[in-house]
Design brief:
By secondary structure, this protein is mostly beta strands. It has a single domain, classed as Jelly Rolls (Sandwich), CATH 2.60.120. Helix content is 5%, strand content 37%. It has one helix and nine strands, in the order βββββββββα. The protein has a four-stranded antiparallel β-sheet with strand order 1-8-3-6, with no helix packed on it. Strands 5-4-7 form a three-stranded antiparallel β-sheet, with no helix packed on it.
Length: 132
């Protein structure tokens, strides 16, 4: 007998610290070539939820140690004032792809780069790194 019921699998259950009033939501895929460092340090105006489709990503948020996200794993970040240091391809010989759903403040950019001056001023908030 063929069971035609849908199978639902929870990948991530998270209560974000805030949702912007009148939030805008954007869903996109991100494709990183082999060894790409990804977007430089940045922040998002609201929370971001993602799912790794292929490959691996080095993921680092302010106050948390860097970690590797692998295909089939979900991730999130709170957005707001938190700096997102890394979202780079961890593989030197293969592309990595992930999908993200970004919740943003109306009229503000979904992603804002963080300058060197601010990175220096907040360096005490960055978790110790493997290479330091």
């Amino acid at each position: 007998m063929n069971d035609s019921r849908a199978v639902l699998t929870t990948l991530l259950h998270q209560v974000p610290p805030f949702l912007p009033e009148g939030a805008e939501v954007m869903t996109m895929t991100v494709e990183l070539p082999p060894g790409s460092p990804g977007t430089p340090p940045h922040r998002h105006s609201g929370p971001v939820f993602g799912y790794m489709l292929d490959g691996e990503m080095i993921f680092e948020l302010e106050g948390e140690p860097e970690r590797v996200i692998r295909a089939g794993e979900a991730f999130w970040e709170p957005g707001g004032d938190v700096i997102h240091y890394q979202a780079g391809n961890n593989l030197p010989d293969a592309w990595s792809r992930f999908v993200v759903v970004m919740v943003g403040v109306p009229g503000e950019p979904m992603l804002t780069l963080v300058g060197a001056h601010e990175l220096e001023a907040r360096r005490d908030r960055r978790a110790p790194r493997k290479d330091s």
